[in-house]
Specification:
- By secondary structure, the chain is an alpha+beta fold.
- Among the domains are: 88 residues, no CATH class; 75 residues, Beta-lactamase Inhibitory Protein, Chain:B, domain 1 (2-Layer Sandwich), CATH 3.30.1450.
- The chain is 38% helix and 14% strand.
- Strand 2 and strand 3 form a beta hairpin.
- Helix 2 crosses helix 3 and helix 3 runs parallel beside helix 5.
Length: 238
Amino acid sequence: MRNAFQTLVFIGVLFIVGCAHDLPVKTVRDNPANENTEAPKESEPAVVTPTIPPPPAEPTATTERKEDIKLSSLEIQKFAYELGLDPKKPLSDDEKKQIANRKRLRELERALDSSKERLQYSKVLPWLKNDDEKIELLNIPSVEGRQVWINKNRIWSRAQDLKEFDEVVESQDIALGMPAEYVKKSWGEPVNVEISGNPIYRNERWQYNKQVATPQGYKQEKRYVYFEGGRVVGWETE
């Protein structure tokens, strides 16, 4: 009887173990009380800081003009004659550059919007060597900055170097770079004066009528003297 009971118990244990394998497995957390039962929050959008580009560099005297200067046919003709060039002939690259510089210079001169700026420029203008120097000066954005440039380059010392024109005046002739006052000493007062642009810049054409000896007698010639900034840049005779 005892052996039969033990056999029944053993069979019952096997049955329970087999059923246990078929039951679903449930994961049990060690500390359910610490679980965060709140619904997950939506992630906040990231804050993007806009990138501010650096301000453009302030123009200085050495700033190069990168864009091409466009010229109409009338402008080419006008500025070519100002420079003593013949626009009817093919122009070299250097001559085209001179014409473009002359247009740029005229634009900068017109942009001087105060009497203080125009007066400062007109005083130093006779002693500037060429258009490049004039453009370099006018590209400086303030009167104070231009005065620093004038002092640094010792522009005023050029006004004292006029002895070279004394002999020209004695021979009653004129020369390139001669100030208008010296032309008057040599040839006297002109019979007519034409002014181009703002009078303060002293871009002028003076007319003289001269009696010239010829084999047939005396004849009258018209002589024109061209000034830029109050100094001779050229002349012609009719």
